[in-house]
Amino acid sequence: MPAQDETGLMMFPPLRAGWSRRGEPAEVHISGWNARRVIFGTMNLMTGTRLFLPRPKGRAGDFQAFLEEIRGHYRGWRVALLLDSDPGHTAKASVRAAEGMTLLWLPKRSPELNPMDTPWGQGKDVIAANKQYATIDEQVDRFLSHLTSLSGPEALHTSGVLSNDFWLRPTLSKKFCGHA
């Protein structure tokens, strides 16, 4: 069973650290305009296998393109997709594009329940925080390289799936990952 989520990367870096003299504002040097990319991703909760698709935007059509990537990757497998209720996910055309997949909806406003949330944040801390790249595409490439460099077990560990306290542990079973 793969968990799905998306995250945005911005050309302007998230500032996590900095310094200035006491009582003086810190100077933050930023150049260019704030380009953006949205990274769609899934992680198989049994194996840690991940699939990513960068897109210029995060709209319903972009999500539907990612569903096609998922369908191609899991060809011949029953797919139960764990996802949040983002408007792009719940759009009628998106639900139609997911035909044949079982959609398991997370509660609204519960990003902590999505196993993809922690790897996204840790990847941004390592790759994007306090750094501005020459291009947004360079940043996306480094971000994806970092995430794909994790082995399956490392990705599952990082996301908390291997924890005895993982909220979905009692219901994880091979029935969601077996052949159709």
Q: SSE order in H/E notation?
A: EEEHEHHEHHH
How would you sum up the global shape? Answer: globular
The CATH class is identified as Alpha Beta
Distance between the termini: 13 Å
Oligomeric organization of the protein chains? single chain
Number of domains: 1
The CATH topology corresponds to Nucleotidyltransferase, domain 5
Strand order of the largest sheet: 1-2-3
Assess the beta-strand content as a share of residues: 15-25%
The helix content is 25-40%
Runs with pLDDT <50, length 5+? 173-180
| Largest sheet features | 3 strands, antiparallel
User: What is the CATH superfamily?
Assistant: Ribonuclease H-like superfamily/Ribonuclease H
CATH architecture: 2-Layer Sandwich
Could you explain the architecture of this structure?
There is one protein chain. The chain is of the alpha+beta class and 180 residues long. The protein has one domain: Ribonuclease H-like superfamily/Ribonuclease H (Nucleotidyltransferase, domain 5), CATH 3.30.420. The protein has helices spanning 60-73, 87-90, 92-97, 117-127, 136-149, 152-159; strands at residues 2-10, 36-44, 50-55, 80-83, 102-105. A hairpin with a 5-residue loop joins strand 2 (36-44) and strand 3 (50-55).
